[in-house]
Amino acid sequence: MLVGKGISEGIGLGKVVILKENEIKIEKQKIKDTSAEEQLVYNAIKEVENEIEYLIQNISGTEKEIMQAYLMILQDPSLIEETIKIIEQEKCNSSYAVEIGLNKIIKTFEDMDDPYMSARSRDIEDMKKRILSKLLNIKEIDLSKLPENTILVAKELSTSDTAKINLKNISGIITEIGGVNSHMAIIARTNEIPAIVGIKHIFENIKENDYIALNGTTGEIYLNPTETEKEELKQRKEKQKQEKQELEKYKNQKAITKDGHQVELLANIGGPQDIQIVIDNTAEGVGLLRSEFLYMDAIDFPSEDEQFIAYKKIAESLENKRLVIRTLDIGGDKDLKYMKLPKEENPAMGYRAIRICLDRRDIFRTQLRALLRASAYGNIGIMYPMIISVDEVKEIKKIVESIKAELTEKGIEYGEVEQGIMIETPAAVMISDLLAEEVDFFSIGTNDLTQYTLAIDRQNSKLDNIYDSHHPAVLRMIQKTIENGHKAGCWVGICGELGADMTLTETFLKMGIDELSVSPT
Ligand code: PEP
Ligand code: MG
After folding, report:
1. Total-model pTM
2. Less Cβ crowding at N or C end of the chain, within 10 Å?
3. Measured at the alpha carbon of residue 216, what is the angle toward residues 214 and 221, in degrees to the nearest 5?
4. pLDDT band at 111 (very low <50, low <70, confident <90, very high)
Protein backbone atom coordinates (compact mmCIF):
# COMPACT_ATOMS: atom_id res chain seq x y z
CA MET A 1 0.00 0.00 0.00
CA LEU A 2 1.18 3.52 -0.78
CA VAL A 3 0.35 6.37 1.56
CA GLY A 4 0.27 10.04 0.63
CA LYS A 5 -1.59 13.10 1.82
CA GLY A 6 -5.33 12.99 1.28
CA ILE A 7 -6.49 16.37 0.00
CA SER A 8 -10.00 15.51 -1.11
CA GLU A 9 -12.13 13.02 0.81
CA GLY A 10 -13.85 9.89 -0.42
CA ILE A 11 -13.11 6.46 -1.83
CA GLY A 12 -12.32 5.93 -5.49
CA LEU A 13 -11.88 2.72 -7.45
CA GLY A 14 -10.79 2.43 -11.04
CA LYS A 15 -8.13 1.93 -13.66
CA VAL A 16 -5.06 4.11 -13.89
CA VAL A 17 -4.48 6.50 -16.76
CA ILE A 18 -1.02 8.01 -16.55
CA LEU A 19 -0.74 11.59 -17.62
CA LYS A 20 2.91 11.91 -18.47
CA GLU A 21 4.42 14.73 -20.36
CA ASN A 22 5.53 13.69 -23.80
CA GLU A 23 9.23 13.89 -24.19
CA ILE A 24 9.91 16.55 -26.73
CA LYS A 25 13.17 16.13 -28.60
CA ILE A 26 14.34 19.17 -30.50
CA GLU A 27 17.01 19.00 -33.15
CA LYS A 28 18.42 21.87 -35.11
CA GLN A 29 18.04 21.57 -38.87
CA LYS A 30 19.20 23.85 -41.65
CA ILE A 31 16.27 25.20 -43.66
CA LYS A 32 16.17 27.03 -46.97
CA ASP A 33 12.55 28.13 -47.05
CA THR A 34 12.42 30.23 -43.89
CA SER A 35 9.02 31.72 -44.72
CA ALA A 36 7.45 28.23 -44.72
CA GLU A 37 8.91 27.63 -41.23
CA GLU A 38 7.59 30.98 -40.06
CA GLN A 39 4.14 30.06 -41.34
CA LEU A 40 4.33 26.81 -39.33
CA VAL A 41 4.93 28.83 -36.16
CA TYR A 42 1.97 31.13 -36.90
CA ASN A 43 -0.25 28.12 -37.54
CA ALA A 44 0.85 26.28 -34.39
CA ILE A 45 0.23 29.32 -32.18
CA LYS A 46 -3.18 29.82 -33.80
CA GLU A 47 -4.09 26.18 -33.16
CA VAL A 48 -3.19 26.46 -29.47
CA GLU A 49 -5.12 29.74 -29.26
CA ASN A 50 -8.20 28.10 -30.80
CA GLU A 51 -8.01 25.24 -28.33
CA ILE A 52 -7.84 27.62 -25.38
CA GLU A 53 -10.64 29.79 -26.71
CA TYR A 54 -12.78 26.67 -27.00
CA LEU A 55 -11.92 25.70 -23.41
CA ILE A 56 -12.78 29.14 -22.10
CA GLN A 57 -16.38 28.76 -23.23
CA ASN A 58 -16.96 25.98 -20.72
CA ILE A 59 -15.22 27.27 -17.63
CA SER A 60 -15.57 30.14 -15.21
CA GLY A 61 -13.95 31.88 -12.25
CA THR A 62 -10.24 31.52 -11.56
CA GLU A 63 -9.76 28.87 -14.24
CA LYS A 64 -11.19 31.20 -16.85
CA GLU A 65 -8.95 34.05 -15.69
CA ILE A 66 -5.88 31.83 -15.98
CA MET A 67 -6.85 30.70 -19.46
CA GLN A 68 -7.37 34.29 -20.47
CA ALA A 69 -3.86 35.06 -19.22
CA TYR A 70 -2.59 32.19 -21.39
CA LEU A 71 -4.28 33.74 -24.40
CA MET A 72 -2.56 37.03 -23.65
CA ILE A 73 0.79 35.26 -23.60
CA LEU A 74 0.08 33.66 -26.98
CA GLN A 75 -1.02 36.96 -28.46
CA ASP A 76 2.02 38.85 -27.20
CA PRO A 77 4.01 39.97 -30.25
CA SER A 78 7.39 39.31 -28.54
CA LEU A 79 6.62 35.58 -28.59
CA ILE A 80 6.47 35.43 -32.35
CA GLU A 81 9.11 38.11 -32.95
CA GLU A 82 11.72 36.28 -30.92
CA THR A 83 11.05 33.04 -32.84
CA ILE A 84 11.02 34.60 -36.31
CA LYS A 85 14.28 36.40 -35.54
CA ILE A 86 15.96 33.06 -34.81
CA ILE A 87 14.57 31.37 -37.93
CA GLU A 88 15.87 34.21 -40.08
CA GLN A 89 19.24 34.60 -38.41
CA GLU A 90 20.05 30.92 -38.14
CA LYS A 91 18.07 29.61 -41.12
CA CYS A 92 16.74 26.89 -38.87
CA ASN A 93 13.61 24.82 -38.34
CA SER A 94 10.57 26.21 -36.53
CA SER A 95 10.62 23.89 -33.49
CA TYR A 96 14.26 24.73 -32.74
CA ALA A 97 13.49 28.44 -33.04
CA VAL A 98 10.49 28.16 -30.71
CA GLU A 99 12.57 26.22 -28.16
CA ILE A 100 15.42 28.75 -28.15
CA GLY A 101 13.28 31.87 -28.54
CA LEU A 102 10.80 31.01 -25.81
CA ASN A 103 13.50 29.77 -23.45
CA LYS A 104 14.98 33.24 -23.65
CA ILE A 105 11.67 34.82 -22.69
CA ILE A 106 11.17 32.22 -19.93
CA LYS A 107 14.60 33.01 -18.49
CA THR A 108 13.86 36.76 -18.51
CA PHE A 109 10.69 36.12 -16.50
CA GLU A 110 12.37 33.66 -14.14
CA ASP A 111 15.02 36.23 -13.28
CA MET A 112 12.52 38.89 -12.31
CA ASP A 113 12.52 39.78 -8.62
CA ASP A 114 8.80 40.13 -8.62
CA PRO A 115 7.37 36.73 -7.58
CA TYR A 116 4.22 37.17 -9.64
CA MET A 117 6.13 37.89 -12.83
CA SER A 118 8.67 35.21 -12.05
CA ALA A 119 5.86 32.65 -11.66
CA ARG A 120 4.56 33.58 -15.13
CA SER A 121 7.61 31.80 -16.56
CA ARG A 122 5.81 28.51 -15.84
CA ASP A 123 2.81 29.63 -17.89
CA ILE A 124 5.07 30.48 -20.82
CA GLU A 125 6.75 27.10 -20.42
CA ASP A 126 3.32 25.48 -20.61
CA MET A 127 2.52 27.44 -23.78
CA LYS A 128 5.90 26.51 -25.29
CA LYS A 129 5.19 22.82 -24.79
CA ARG A 130 1.80 23.15 -26.44
CA ILE A 131 3.21 25.00 -29.46
CA LEU A 132 6.00 22.41 -29.81
CA SER A 133 3.50 19.55 -29.59
CA LYS A 134 1.65 21.08 -32.54
CA LEU A 135 4.83 21.64 -34.54
CA LEU A 136 6.12 18.14 -33.88
CA ASN A 137 2.70 16.58 -34.29
CA ILE A 138 2.78 14.99 -30.84
CA LYS A 139 -0.62 13.65 -29.87
CA GLU A 140 -1.61 14.39 -26.30
CA ILE A 141 -4.02 12.29 -24.24
CA ASP A 142 -7.48 13.68 -24.84
CA LEU A 143 -8.46 14.54 -21.29
CA SER A 144 -12.04 15.19 -22.29
CA LYS A 145 -12.46 11.58 -23.43
CA LEU A 146 -11.06 9.54 -20.54
CA PRO A 147 -12.92 6.28 -19.88
CA GLU A 148 -15.33 5.96 -16.98
CA ASN A 149 -13.83 5.24 -13.54
CA THR A 150 -10.42 6.65 -14.43
CA ILE A 151 -7.86 7.16 -11.71
CA LEU A 152 -5.74 9.95 -13.09
CA VAL A 153 -2.07 9.75 -12.12
CA ALA A 154 0.34 12.58 -12.86
CA LYS A 155 3.44 14.22 -11.52
CA GLU A 156 1.51 17.47 -11.21
CA LEU A 157 -1.76 18.66 -12.72
CA SER A 158 -1.63 22.13 -14.21
CA THR A 159 -4.64 24.39 -14.30
CA SER A 160 -4.96 23.98 -18.05
CA ASP A 161 -4.90 20.17 -17.73
CA THR A 162 -7.49 20.22 -14.97
CA ALA A 163 -9.79 22.45 -17.00
CA LYS A 164 -9.76 19.97 -19.90
CA ILE A 165 -10.69 16.90 -17.86
CA ASN A 166 -14.18 15.52 -18.11
CA LEU A 167 -14.54 15.21 -14.35
CA LYS A 168 -17.60 12.95 -14.55
CA ASN A 169 -15.39 10.05 -15.56
CA ILE A 170 -12.74 10.57 -12.89
CA SER A 171 -12.88 8.36 -9.79
CA GLY A 172 -9.69 9.62 -8.26
CA ILE A 173 -6.60 11.75 -8.71
CA ILE A 174 -3.10 10.95 -7.48
CA THR A 175 -0.11 13.25 -7.97
CA GLU A 176 3.43 13.57 -6.77
CA ILE A 177 3.36 17.34 -6.36
CA GLY A 178 0.51 19.51 -5.12
CA GLY A 179 -0.81 21.00 -1.93
CA VAL A 180 -4.06 21.25 -0.09
CA ASN A 181 -4.62 24.65 -1.64
CA SER A 182 -3.46 23.86 -5.15
CA HIS A 183 -5.91 24.55 -7.89
CA MET A 184 -6.30 20.84 -8.54
CA ALA A 185 -7.15 20.24 -4.86
CA ILE A 186 -9.84 22.88 -4.90
CA ILE A 187 -11.41 21.46 -8.06
CA ALA A 188 -11.23 17.90 -6.69
CA ARG A 189 -12.96 18.89 -3.46
CA THR A 190 -15.58 20.95 -5.22
CA ASN A 191 -16.41 18.01 -7.49
CA GLU A 192 -16.07 15.47 -4.67
CA ILE A 193 -13.34 13.52 -6.40
CA PRO A 194 -11.04 11.74 -3.93
CA ALA A 195 -7.47 12.95 -4.35
CA ILE A 196 -4.07 12.23 -2.86
CA VAL A 197 -0.79 14.10 -3.30
CA GLY A 198 2.79 13.52 -2.20
CA ILE A 199 3.46 10.09 -3.76
CA LYS A 200 7.19 10.08 -4.40
CA HIS A 201 8.59 8.46 -7.59
CA ILE A 202 5.03 8.17 -8.76
CA PHE A 203 5.67 6.59 -12.17
CA GLU A 204 7.85 3.89 -10.61
CA ASN A 205 5.15 3.04 -8.12
CA ILE A 206 2.03 3.26 -10.25
CA LYS A 207 1.69 1.93 -13.80
CA GLU A 208 -0.79 2.49 -16.62
CA ASN A 209 -3.85 0.20 -16.31
CA ASP A 210 -3.13 -0.72 -12.68
CA TYR A 211 -6.36 -1.17 -10.80
CA ILE A 212 -6.38 1.16 -7.81
CA ALA A 213 -8.52 1.85 -4.81
CA LEU A 214 -7.78 5.07 -2.96
CA ASN A 215 -9.03 6.65 0.20
CA GLY A 216 -8.81 10.43 -0.05
CA THR A 217 -9.50 10.78 3.66
CA THR A 218 -6.62 8.66 4.91
CA GLY A 219 -4.29 9.06 1.92
CA GLU A 220 -4.13 5.28 1.42
CA ILE A 221 -3.66 3.79 -2.05
CA TYR A 222 -4.25 0.06 -2.66
CA LEU A 223 -2.46 -1.12 -5.79
CA ASN A 224 -4.26 -3.93 -7.56
CA PRO A 225 -6.25 -4.73 -4.40
CA THR A 226 -7.46 -8.24 -3.63
CA GLU A 227 -11.12 -9.05 -4.20
CA THR A 228 -11.72 -8.87 -0.45
CA GLU A 229 -10.07 -5.42 -0.19
CA LYS A 230 -12.03 -4.23 -3.21
CA GLU A 231 -15.28 -5.46 -1.77
CA GLU A 232 -14.56 -3.86 1.59
CA LEU A 233 -13.74 -0.50 0.00
CA LYS A 234 -16.77 -0.65 -2.27
CA GLN A 235 -18.93 -1.18 0.78
CA ARG A 236 -17.27 1.70 2.58
CA LYS A 237 -17.83 3.90 -0.46
CA GLU A 238 -21.48 2.91 -0.58
CA LYS A 239 -21.78 3.65 3.14
CA GLN A 240 -20.19 7.09 2.68
CA LYS A 241 -22.62 7.79 -0.14
CA GLN A 242 -25.56 6.87 2.04
CA GLU A 243 -24.22 8.94 4.92
CA LYS A 244 -23.84 11.90 2.61
CA GLN A 245 -27.37 11.50 1.32
CA GLU A 246 -28.57 11.23 4.88
CA LEU A 247 -26.82 14.51 5.70
CA GLU A 248 -28.37 16.35 2.74
CA LYS A 249 -31.59 16.77 4.66
CA TYR A 250 -29.79 18.73 7.39
CA LYS A 251 -28.26 21.20 4.98
CA ASN A 252 -30.57 24.09 5.61
CA GLN A 253 -31.09 23.41 9.27
CA LYS A 254 -29.51 25.09 12.24
CA ALA A 255 -27.04 23.08 14.30
CA ILE A 256 -28.90 22.73 17.57
CA THR A 257 -28.34 20.03 20.17
CA LYS A 258 -31.26 18.13 21.69
CA ASP A 259 -30.96 20.28 24.80
CA GLY A 260 -31.22 23.43 22.74
CA HIS A 261 -27.61 24.62 22.44
CA GLN A 262 -26.99 26.21 19.08
CA VAL A 263 -23.60 26.11 17.41
CA GLU A 264 -23.09 28.20 14.34
CA LEU A 265 -21.44 26.36 11.51
CA LEU A 266 -19.43 28.57 9.20
CA ALA A 267 -16.74 28.05 6.59
CA ASN A 268 -13.06 28.89 6.21
CA ILE A 269 -12.18 30.22 2.81
CA GLY A 270 -9.05 31.33 1.01
CA GLY A 271 -10.64 33.67 -1.51
CA PRO A 272 -13.64 34.44 -3.72
CA GLN A 273 -13.26 31.17 -5.65
CA ASP A 274 -14.58 29.29 -2.59
CA ILE A 275 -17.79 31.27 -2.14
CA GLN A 276 -19.93 29.02 -4.32
CA ILE A 277 -19.08 25.95 -2.21
CA VAL A 278 -19.99 27.91 0.92
CA ILE A 279 -23.37 28.74 -0.58
CA ASP A 280 -23.97 25.24 -1.99
CA ASN A 281 -23.25 23.66 1.37
CA THR A 282 -25.43 26.23 3.15
CA ALA A 283 -22.82 27.33 5.65
CA GLU A 284 -24.09 30.04 7.97
CA GLY A 285 -21.38 32.37 6.78
CA VAL A 286 -17.61 32.62 6.63
CA GLY A 287 -15.81 32.34 9.96
CA LEU A 288 -12.37 32.91 8.49
CA LEU A 289 -11.43 34.56 5.24
CA ARG A 290 -7.65 34.44 5.02
CA SER A 291 -7.08 37.83 3.41
CA GLU A 292 -3.57 36.85 2.36
CA PHE A 293 -4.98 35.71 -1.01
CA LEU A 294 -5.24 39.33 -2.09
CA TYR A 295 -1.62 39.99 -1.25
CA MET A 296 -0.05 36.73 -2.36
CA ASP A 297 -1.65 36.76 -5.81
CA ALA A 298 -0.50 40.30 -6.47
CA ILE A 299 2.69 41.87 -7.74
CA ASP A 300 2.62 44.62 -5.15
CA PHE A 301 0.49 45.56 -2.15
CA PRO A 302 -3.14 45.70 -3.28
CA SER A 303 -4.55 49.22 -3.18
CA GLU A 304 -7.39 50.25 -0.89
CA ASP A 305 -9.83 50.21 -3.82
CA GLU A 306 -8.72 46.79 -5.03
CA GLN A 307 -9.25 45.42 -1.55
CA PHE A 308 -12.53 47.24 -1.07
CA ILE A 309 -13.91 45.78 -4.32
CA ALA A 310 -12.84 42.24 -3.38
CA TYR A 311 -14.24 42.37 0.18
CA LYS A 312 -17.45 44.04 -0.97
CA LYS A 313 -18.02 41.40 -3.63
CA ILE A 314 -17.61 38.55 -1.15
CA ALA A 315 -19.77 40.29 1.45
CA GLU A 316 -22.53 40.87 -1.08
CA SER A 317 -22.47 37.33 -2.39
CA LEU A 318 -22.98 36.09 1.17
CA GLU A 319 -25.99 38.36 1.46
CA ASN A 320 -26.38 39.09 5.13
CA LYS A 321 -24.49 36.10 6.45
CA ARG A 322 -21.53 36.80 8.69
CA LEU A 323 -18.17 37.28 6.98
CA VAL A 324 -15.17 37.34 9.30
CA ILE A 325 -12.14 38.70 7.50
CA ARG A 326 -8.78 38.19 9.10
CA THR A 327 -6.29 40.99 8.58
CA LEU A 328 -3.02 40.24 6.86
CA ASP A 329 -1.31 37.23 8.42
CA ILE A 330 1.92 37.31 6.50
CA GLY A 331 5.37 36.21 7.64
CA GLY A 332 6.16 32.87 9.24
CA ASP A 333 5.60 30.31 6.50
CA LYS A 334 3.77 32.80 4.25
CA ASP A 335 6.16 35.00 2.35
CA LEU A 336 5.41 38.08 0.27
CA LYS A 337 8.38 38.38 -2.05
CA TYR A 338 7.69 42.01 -2.93
CA MET A 339 7.85 42.89 0.73
CA LYS A 340 11.41 41.58 0.90
CA LEU A 341 11.13 40.39 4.49
CA PRO A 342 14.53 39.44 5.88
CA LYS A 343 15.28 35.73 6.41
CA GLU A 344 14.81 34.84 10.05
CA GLU A 345 16.24 32.13 12.28
CA ASN A 346 12.85 31.37 13.71
CA PRO A 347 10.13 32.68 11.39
CA ALA A 348 7.14 31.16 13.23
CA MET A 349 8.09 33.27 16.22
CA GLY A 350 9.28 36.21 14.21
CA TYR A 351 8.22 39.34 12.43
CA ARG A 352 4.76 38.31 11.28
CA ALA A 353 1.02 38.94 11.24
CA ILE A 354 -0.18 41.70 13.56
CA ARG A 355 3.42 42.50 14.46
CA ILE A 356 4.05 43.59 10.89
CA CYS A 357 0.74 45.42 10.68
CA LEU A 358 1.42 47.42 13.84
CA ASP A 359 4.89 48.23 12.54
CA ARG A 360 3.88 49.03 8.97
CA ARG A 361 0.87 51.20 9.72
CA ASP A 362 0.55 52.22 6.07
CA ILE A 363 -0.23 48.61 5.07
CA PHE A 364 -2.54 48.07 8.03
CA ARG A 365 -4.51 51.30 7.63
CA THR A 366 -5.05 50.62 3.92
CA GLN A 367 -6.54 47.22 4.69
CA LEU A 368 -8.65 48.50 7.58
CA ARG A 369 -10.04 51.36 5.47
CA ALA A 370 -10.99 48.89 2.73
CA LEU A 371 -12.60 46.57 5.29
CA LEU A 372 -14.59 49.34 6.94
CA ARG A 373 -15.80 50.68 3.59
CA ALA A 374 -16.86 47.14 2.56
CA SER A 375 -18.71 46.74 5.86
CA ALA A 376 -21.44 49.01 4.47
CA TYR A 377 -22.34 46.17 2.07
CA GLY A 378 -22.60 43.14 4.31
CA ASN A 379 -22.18 41.66 7.73
CA ILE A 380 -18.43 41.96 8.18
CA GLY A 381 -16.37 41.11 11.24
CA ILE A 382 -12.68 41.99 11.46
CA MET A 383 -10.30 39.57 13.11
CA TYR A 384 -6.69 40.13 14.16
CA PRO A 385 -4.14 37.28 14.15
CA MET A 386 -1.29 36.36 16.52
CA ILE A 387 -2.33 38.58 19.41
CA ILE A 388 -0.24 38.36 22.58
CA SER A 389 -1.20 41.42 24.60
CA VAL A 390 -3.99 43.76 25.65
CA ASP A 391 -1.89 46.71 24.51
CA GLU A 392 -1.87 45.40 20.95
CA VAL A 393 -5.66 45.20 20.95
CA LYS A 394 -6.03 48.66 22.45
CA GLU A 395 -3.67 50.05 19.82
CA ILE A 396 -5.59 48.35 17.01
CA LYS A 397 -8.89 49.69 18.30
CA LYS A 398 -7.44 53.21 18.41
CA ILE A 399 -6.37 52.88 14.77
CA VAL A 400 -9.81 51.60 13.79
CA GLU A 401 -11.48 54.49 15.58
CA SER A 402 -9.25 57.03 13.83
CA ILE A 403 -10.08 55.51 10.44
CA LYS A 404 -13.78 55.58 11.24
CA ALA A 405 -13.42 59.28 12.10
CA GLU A 406 -11.65 59.92 8.78
CA LEU A 407 -14.36 58.13 6.85
CA THR A 408 -17.12 59.99 8.69
CA GLU A 409 -15.42 63.29 7.97
CA LYS A 410 -15.28 62.48 4.29
CA GLY A 411 -18.87 61.27 4.27
CA ILE A 412 -17.83 57.72 3.36
CA GLU A 413 -20.19 55.02 4.55
CA TYR A 414 -19.22 52.13 6.78
CA GLY A 415 -21.26 49.58 8.70
CA GLU A 416 -21.29 48.14 12.20
CA VAL A 417 -18.36 45.79 12.50
CA GLU A 418 -17.66 43.23 15.15
CA GLN A 419 -13.99 43.10 16.09
CA GLY A 420 -12.38 39.95 17.37
CA ILE A 421 -9.04 38.29 17.80
CA MET A 422 -7.57 34.94 17.01
CA ILE A 423 -6.51 33.00 20.03
CA GLU A 424 -3.47 31.19 18.75
CA THR A 425 -0.76 31.91 21.29
CA PRO A 426 -0.56 30.57 24.86
CA ALA A 427 -0.13 34.21 25.97
CA ALA A 428 -3.53 35.11 24.55
CA VAL A 429 -5.11 32.14 26.35
CA MET A 430 -3.56 33.07 29.69
CA ILE A 431 -4.86 36.65 29.48
CA SER A 432 -8.09 35.79 27.68
CA ASP A 433 -10.06 37.22 30.64
CA LEU A 434 -8.49 40.62 29.99
CA LEU A 435 -8.63 40.39 26.21
CA ALA A 436 -12.31 39.48 26.37
CA GLU A 437 -13.05 42.89 27.87
CA GLU A 438 -11.73 44.51 24.70
CA VAL A 439 -13.33 42.54 21.87
CA ASP A 440 -16.58 41.08 20.56
CA PHE A 441 -15.35 37.59 19.81
CA PHE A 442 -12.55 35.06 20.02
CA SER A 443 -11.74 32.57 17.28
CA ILE A 444 -9.33 29.87 18.34
CA GLY A 445 -6.65 29.12 15.77
CA THR A 446 -5.79 25.60 16.84
CA ASN A 447 -3.17 25.15 14.11
CA ASP A 448 -0.90 27.75 15.59
CA LEU A 449 -2.10 27.26 19.15
CA THR A 450 -0.93 23.63 18.95
CA GLN A 451 2.39 24.71 17.46
CA TYR A 452 3.09 27.26 20.18
CA THR A 453 1.70 25.25 23.07
CA LEU A 454 3.65 22.11 22.25
CA ALA A 455 6.68 23.97 20.81
CA ILE A 456 6.34 21.93 17.63
CA ASP A 457 6.87 23.58 14.26
CA ARG A 458 3.69 22.86 12.28
CA GLN A 459 5.73 22.90 9.06
CA ASN A 460 8.17 20.22 10.16
CA SER A 461 6.92 16.91 8.75
CA LYS A 462 9.43 15.00 10.91
CA LEU A 463 7.35 16.02 13.90
CA ASP A 464 3.94 15.20 12.40
CA ASN A 465 3.68 12.16 14.68
CA ILE A 466 3.85 14.29 17.83
CA TYR A 467 2.03 17.40 16.57
CA ASP A 468 -1.03 16.46 18.56
CA SER A 469 -3.93 18.89 18.64
CA HIS A 470 -5.70 16.52 21.06
CA HIS A 471 -2.96 17.08 23.64
CA PRO A 472 -4.60 17.84 27.00
CA ALA A 473 -2.65 21.10 27.17
CA VAL A 474 -4.27 22.27 23.93
CA LEU A 475 -7.73 21.16 25.05
CA ARG A 476 -7.34 22.94 28.38
CA MET A 477 -6.29 26.10 26.52
CA ILE A 478 -9.49 25.89 24.48
CA GLN A 479 -11.59 25.36 27.58
CA LYS A 480 -10.01 28.31 29.39
CA THR A 481 -10.53 30.56 26.38
CA ILE A 482 -14.22 29.66 26.14
CA GLU A 483 -14.79 30.20 29.86
CA ASN A 484 -13.05 33.56 29.94
CA GLY A 485 -14.70 34.70 26.71
CA HIS A 486 -18.16 33.86 28.02
CA LYS A 487 -17.59 35.61 31.35
CA ALA A 488 -17.15 38.89 29.47
CA GLY A 489 -19.91 38.26 26.94
CA CYS A 490 -17.74 37.32 23.94
CA TRP A 491 -18.78 34.58 21.58
CA VAL A 492 -16.06 31.99 21.04
CA GLY A 493 -15.42 29.92 17.95
CA ILE A 494 -12.76 27.63 16.52
CA CYS A 495 -11.38 28.26 13.06
CA GLY A 496 -8.32 26.00 13.19
CA GLU A 497 -8.49 22.57 11.55
CA LEU A 498 -9.47 21.01 14.87
CA GLY A 499 -12.92 22.56 14.55
CA ALA A 500 -13.73 19.96 11.88
CA ASP A 501 -12.46 17.04 13.94
CA MET A 502 -15.68 15.24 14.71
CA THR A 503 -14.10 13.07 17.40
CA LEU A 504 -13.95 16.29 19.43
CA THR A 505 -17.31 17.82 18.54
CA GLU A 506 -18.89 16.48 21.70
CA THR A 507 -15.99 17.80 23.79
CA PHE A 508 -16.36 21.25 22.24
CA LEU A 509 -20.09 21.19 22.87
CA LYS A 510 -19.50 20.36 26.51
CA MET A 511 -17.05 23.24 26.70
CA GLY A 512 -19.80 25.52 25.37
CA ILE A 513 -18.36 26.46 21.98
CA ASP A 514 -20.53 28.94 20.05
CA GLU A 515 -19.18 28.59 16.54
CA LEU A 516 -17.16 26.20 14.39
CA SER A 517 -15.62 27.42 11.17
CA VAL A 518 -14.46 24.58 8.95
CA SER A 519 -13.58 23.76 5.37
CA PRO A 520 -16.69 24.39 3.25
CA THR A 521 -16.90 20.80 2.01
C1 PEP B 1 -4.71 28.68 12.93
O2 PEP B 1 -3.58 29.00 13.26
O3 PEP B 1 -5.36 27.77 13.48
C4 PEP B 1 -5.39 29.39 11.82
C5 PEP B 1 -6.66 29.18 11.54
O6 PEP B 1 -4.64 30.24 11.07
P7 PEP B 1 -3.61 29.76 9.92
O8 PEP B 1 -3.80 28.28 9.73
O9 PEP B 1 -3.96 30.56 8.73
O10 PEP B 1 -2.31 30.11 10.53
MG1 MG C 1 -2.67 30.86 12.51
Report:
1. 0.68
2. N
3. 30
4. confident
